[in-house]
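Technical note accompanying the year-one report. For the benefit of new consortium partners, we illustrate the data format agreed upon in the data management plan: each record pairs a sequence with a structure-token string. No post-processing was applied to the example shown here.
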Amino acid sequence: MNKHELIQALKEKAKLPRQEAYEVIELFFAGMTNAFIKGERVEIRGFCSFFTKNYKPYIGRNPKTGEKVQISAKRLPFFKCGKELKERVDSSLKRK
């Protein structure tokens, strides 16, 4: 499912105009992004949690040339699946 399909599903399920469904999805993602920028964790109980990890700078290699390259410090978001979601996905496999 991509963003467009998510907007379409929200529009149909909640019987919202497309623009309102779009704004709800945009608001949701903007809220998540702002939380990541502040270094906060985002948790959707029973589904998943998102958090950021900090990486220190290090020396890497350019795979093409083998030349050493300085990699700067960075912060990346990570996803951790919730127990309920794991169980639902696993049980759907067992039903087949």
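Partners are asked to follow this layout when depositing records. Strands lie at 42-44, 48-55, 58-61, 68-71, 74-81.
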